[in-house]
Write a structure and sequence with these properties.
Strand order of the largest sheet: 3-2-4-1-5-6-7-8
Strand content: 5-15%
Number of strands: 8
Shape: globular
Structural class: alpha/beta
Number of helices: 23
Largest sheet: 8 strands, mixed
Radius of gyration: 30 Å
Distance between the termini: 65 Å
């Protein structure tokens, strides 16, 4: 959604590189380009004005003029101001001291409240809670049925005593849900309310009645990130008519201009708390303003990537794999390779994962054209092999390759290419596990590998004898190193003494 904005900002900052000093004209030109980029991204005009004013004031100050790298300082300022627009610090859910915690979802029809209720329920369950979804949207056709289906897919309970489709009282359903939650020990109640195609008196009155009946701990306003400037107008109307504590952005995976979503926190004074960026129930997470700003500026989102990996990868499996690689490359088999590949696939779309890595904005076109089915083809090739072939791919000869190709529905060249890539990957992973670092890079001292432990090959020729360096500091260091090698103990720092040449330069005590 923010690709166009990211590209415009990247092009703007690129013009600043290599300049040792920025003039006022440079800063004016830069802020003008940033203003155009934000307006083209559909950011609200008052927000753009405030943003540009703040960036310009800071850019003209000593913060940039005294910096060694002014262009990087400008990027830092823009990043910090973007974080401020998006709400500053991450806002967490407030949980009630006495369960159940009541979360009410409000918003227009079509914003994705019902689907989002299921996503929020699944997210809460992963956090260790026992959520209950409540069907209070009794007007929209099949809304109750949709919530029941979503709840079942999310693996959470649902409270839907009324059939909906215009039948039932949503306020009574909301009240009864609290009694049901206390009886069945549910600690979080998520109330899905009805929406309208636009703001009207009936919508506001019903939402206010449900709010007064259940006294929610959190009222979340669900907004479609693709509806443009109307998102800000609707948010202001809900804030004044019903009131809400936080914003949830849905459909962030769309390709519409998402600047209106950037404006909501600044205009309404309510922070964005969650964001939904896909159709799957897992495509939902807490909203982090600093990470979103980093992503918009093309600096990636490594923290979210790490969190996804921690949720997906088993610590025990990771340690087992590390132990195998440390023993030697032959211990790592195609079964291990397949297992790792399937775990990466569980983290979500490969293109989305690559998009979170720093610097990948320049390769966006290649990432968007990435064929996700290639992972499935690779898995099919490996699964068409016998256990012996997976354990030792070296035995795969021409006839075996032909059989594997027929079994997996690919060309023989694809089988050959996979095996060759596997040997290269295994060699590199084993080298990294043993401290050798990436190919062509020196090893980490003390961890083995080239530069990190004993080297294989011809021993170095011994010198004719120990030589003392003419540099007093180096000589002192050599003596300490020799003492340490002699008895295996470290030199006491208290015994360290500066050479006479340096002592003479110090002032008298």
């Amino acid at each position: 959604m923010f690709d166009t904005l990211s590209d415009r900002l990247a092009a703007t900052f690129k013009n600043l590189r290599g300049k040792g000093r920025l003039s006022e004209a440079d800063i004016d030109a830069t802020t003008r380009e940033i203003r155009i980029a934000l307006l083209e991204a559909d950011v609200a005009l008052p927000v753009v004005r405030a943003f540009i004013k703040q960036v310009k004031e800071r850019a003209l100050g000593a913060e940039v003029s005294r910096a060694l790298n002014p262009s990087q300082q400008i990027v830092k300022i823009v990043n910090e101001e973007l974080v401020a627009i998006l709400g500053g610090e991450t806002r967490r859910l407030r949980f009630a001291k006495n369960p159940p915690t009541v979360i009410m979802l409000a918003g227009l029809q079509g914003a994705g409240k019902t689907t989002l209720a299921g996503k929020l329920g699944r997210w809460l369950k992963a956090q260790g809670h026992t959520p209950l979804l409540v069907a209070c949207d009794l007007q929209r056709p099949n809304a109750v049925n949709q919530l029941s289906v979503v709840a079942e897919r999310a693996g959470v309970a649902v409270f839907a005593p009324e059939p909906g489709n215009g039948v039932g009282d949503p306020v009574k359903v909301a009240e009864d849900s609290l009694v049901h939650a206390r009886d069945k020990q549910y600690d979080v109640v998520v109330v899905d309310t009805a929406g309208r195609l636009g703001i009207d008196e009936e919508l506001m009155r019903q939402a206010a009645d449900i709010r007064d009946a259940v006294e929610p701990d959190e009222v979340l306003f669900v907004v479609d990130a693709m509806i443009g400037q109307d998102a800000v107008t609707t948010a202001e109307a809900f804030r004044d008519g019903v009131g809400f504590d936080g914003v949830v952005l849905s459909k962030l995976d769309g390709d519409a201009r998402g600047g209106a979503a950037l404006s909501i926190a600044q205009v309404t004074g309510r922070q964005i708390m969650f964001a939904s960026n896909g159709e799957k129930l897992d495509d939902f997470d807490a909203f982090h303003p600093d990470r979103m700003a980093s992503r918009i500026l093309g600096m990636g989102d490594v923290l979210t990537l790490i969190e996804q990996a921690e949720r997906t990868f088993s610590q025990q499996e990771a340690e087992k794999l590390a132990g195998k690689l440390a023993k030697g490359p032959k211990e790592f088999t195609l079964d291990d390779f397949l297992s790792q590949m399937e775990q990466v696939r569980k983290m979500g779309s490969i293109s989305k994962l690559l998009g979170m890595m720093p610097g990948m904005g320049q390769m966006r076109e290649q990432i968007n054209n990435l064929d996700e089915r290639e992972v499935d083809r690779t898995a099919a090739i490996i699964k068409s092999m016998t256990p012996g072939e997976r354990a030792d791919p070296k035995i795969i000869n021409g006839s075996r390759r032909a059989r594997i190709a027929r079994g997996s529905g690919v060309d023989v060249s694809a089988v050959k290419g996979l095996v060759e890539r596997f040997f290269e990957a295994r060699k590199m992973m084993s080298r990294m596990a043993q401290g050798g670092g990436m190919p062509g890079m020196p090893g980490v001292p003390g961890l083995g590998g080239p530069g990190g432990g004993k080297r294989k090959g011809k021993p170095q020729k011994k010198g004719k004898g120990a030589r003392r360096s003419g540099n007093p500091m180096k000589r002192q260091a050599d003596e300490r190193a020799a003492a340490q090698r002699g008895d295996g103990t470290a030199v006491d720092p208290a015994d360290f003494e500066l050479p006479k040449e340096f002592r003479d330069m110090l002032p008298p005590k």
